[in-house]
């Protein structure tokens, strides 16, 4: 299941608000149309030597990335950093990226979790506002 399908299934109206799109219909069967055309690079997550998130370096990276006409960014995507972070750090990282990215840029978060079942904290984190 893709991230967009997961968002549609889990919280369709919230997904529409977060992704800046308009719901096609309402209720349980709601779906969303999001323009995914353009370049959405998987961004690397910077870490300090003590393995804590290097949000200061992330800000420096965004100063350069925001000069490039990307459609948006993929956080915790194919680079594979997600096993190195707690659920709280993952949500905090997505929040920070949303703050650093221009309002017209999409921010897609990789839904990966280690193991066969996600952490009991992970589903609740995805229902919290990003700002």
UniProtKB/TrEMBL annotation:
Keywords: Lyase. Residues 111-131 are annotated as: Disordered. SUPFAM superfamilies: Aldolase. GO terms for molecular function: 4-hydroxy-tetrahydrodipicolinate synthase activity. It comes from the Eukaryota. Homotetramer. This is Uncharacterized protein.
């Amino acid at each position: 299941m893709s991230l967009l399908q997961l968002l549609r299934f889990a919280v369709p109206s919230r997904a529409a608000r977060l992704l800046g799109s308009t719901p096609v219909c309402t209720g349980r069967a709601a779906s969303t149309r999001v323009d995914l055309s353009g370049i959405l690079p998987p961004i690397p997550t910077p870490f300090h030597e003590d393995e804590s998130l290097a949000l200061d370096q992330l800000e420096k990276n965004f100063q350069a990335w925001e000069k490039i006409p990307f459609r948006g960014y993929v956080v915790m995507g194919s680079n594979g950093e997600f096993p190195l972070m707690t659920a709280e750090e993952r949500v905090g990282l997505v929040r920070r990226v949303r703050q650093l990215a221009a309002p017209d840029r999409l921010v897609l978060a990789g839904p990966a979790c280690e193991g066969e079942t996600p952490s009991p904290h992970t589903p609740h984190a995805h229902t919290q506002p990003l700002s």
